[in-house]
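note to self — DONT lose this again. spent like an hour looking for the file last time. sequence + predicted structure for the chain T wanted, 257 res
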Amino acid sequence: MPTKIVIDKNVNISKPILEEALQRFDSSGELIGTGYRNVIKTLDINGIHCNVKSFKVPNLINKIVYNFFRKSKAQRSFEYASKLQGMGIGTPDAVAYVEHKTPLFFKESYYISKQLEYDFTIRKLIDEPMCEDYERILREFTRFTYELHEKGVHFLDHSPGNTLIKQVDGEFQFYLVDLNRMRFEKMDLDMRLNNFARLSPKDYMLDIISDEYATLIGAPKEEIKEKMYFFSKKFSSGFKKKEAFKKKYFFWRKKKS
């Protein structure tokens, strides 16, 4: 099976060592999350503590699309990490990406980055609304997102678990993960406000986010709040309908425990 391996020039890992690490991926390492769709583990590779994401094998059509016409999720993640860091945006350091193919079909792929030790994600603010520095964190996160928008970074998976937060000397630092769905483009106001829709349907969070974002762009606060509410509720409604459809018609699929 043809294998493509691309390693960051600043990383001291050889292709044979990386291949050996991936051969033991299924039987070693520490699992992060449920592994229901994509499997993410931490592995030590040549003395580097790595985060290895194994992407789910695509469906038949995408096996052909990714083989001939489109960059894989692993390649996009690798390239976007470098581009984001070049723009001064936090994300874990890229290590490598690996693709397995046959002459006709795309098979497995992996994105490897350095494991970033962090304190929490935005999900903590949803689960613990009384946590320390709640409003400060949320306002700083809003400013971080504003910076993304100003630099033309449209992070399509801007959801609660995809921004890691690390506190260093009393300051909060933000790092994007799960990078494969991203566009680099000029964003109008509706695109910007819609980009917050996946984060939370909770009014008290949206009140703070909309207030801060309105201040940053110099827009009427009630107008920004109203639009942000609209996009959040629209996303929540669509998500619930999609989940109900899957539950009704794909009940035979079993989630991994």
